[in-house]
Design a protein that fits this description.
Blueprint: E1 2-6, E2 9-19, E3 22-31, E4 34-41, H1 44-50, E5 57-68, E6 74-86, H2 89-95, H3 107-111, E7 119-132, E8 135-144, E9 148-157, E10 162-171, H4 173-176, H5 185-189, E11 200-207, E12 212-216, H6 224-227
């Protein structure tokens, strides 16, 4: 690890090592009047567990790129591939067949399908990030997996420990999103390349540890472009 400070503040930081059998590297360096932050890990689950931030992820090749200043804001992107969420309680309560969500309804129940969440594999996750004033916002968020996936936007975390995320949930995402890739027709049926023919809109808000889920089951029968009518803003 190399570290440099100026006037009592962090000026530059570079680190590299191995964790969980995978390489991890990080870099913070000045870029004119702003700072560039880059973090890469071949085992994000091990890194998050080691840092005490999250204990329900296995694997995951991750890349985080941010640009900004601590006094104003940071903006950038996050990419994660090939990871598994293991016994994630929030995912189970939101997606699984057990009671959860508003009035005891889960996304599985709204769709009439039993979606397993004990070991949920995802081949890709990505989002645009913005951090300012202790609030972390995500836009254009996509979570892709062979069994289900989701698009999402909103506040992931704020200074009061609250979450406010809304998006569309899609079962069988790998096959479902193929409809969205069809030129012209995909814009109507699938709401673009990242949409799907079958989906359900949802909103997740409240305390980050135990948020409230609101599901709109009417959106299950609506093609992608019409599903925006039922989305939560």
């Amino acid at each position: 690890m190399n570290y440099a400070s100026a006037n009592g503040k962090l000026a530059a930081l570079n680190l590299a090592g191995s964790l969980g059998g995978g390489a991890v590297s990080g870099d913070l360096s000045p870029r004119g009047d702003v700072q560039a932050i880059r973090l890469k890990s071949n085992d994000l689950g091990a890194l998050l567990g080691f840092a005490g931030l999250y204990q329900h992820m296995e694997g995951g090749q991750a890349s985080l790129d941010l640009l900004g200043t601590p006094d104003t804001s940071y903006v950038g992107t996050l990419q994660v591939v090939n990871f598994t969420l293991v016994n994630e309680p929030r995912l189970s309560r939101i997606v699984g067949s057990s009671s959860g969500g508003e009035n005891g309804q889960t996304l599985s129940q709204a769709l009439g399908q039993n979606l397993q969440t004990e070991r949920a594999f995802f081949d890709q996750a990505s989002a645009k990030l913005s951090y300012a004033g202790s609030t972390l916002r995500v836009t254009d968020g996509i979570l892709r997996g062979p069994v289900f996936g989701s698009s999402f936007n909103g506040i992931l975390y704020n200074g009061k420990g609250q979450i406010d995320i809304s998006g569309s949930f899609m079962p069988a995402y790998g096959l479902n999103r193929m409809f969205g890739a069809i030129p012209v027709l995909g814009q109507i049926l699938g709401n673009g390349n990242e949409g799907g023919l079958i989906g359900i809109t949802y909103r997740l808000d409240g305390p980050f540890a135990s948020p409230t889920l609101v599901v709109n089951p009417i959106s299950v029968i609506a093609p992608g472009i019409f599903r925006q009518i039922f989305s939560y803003n």
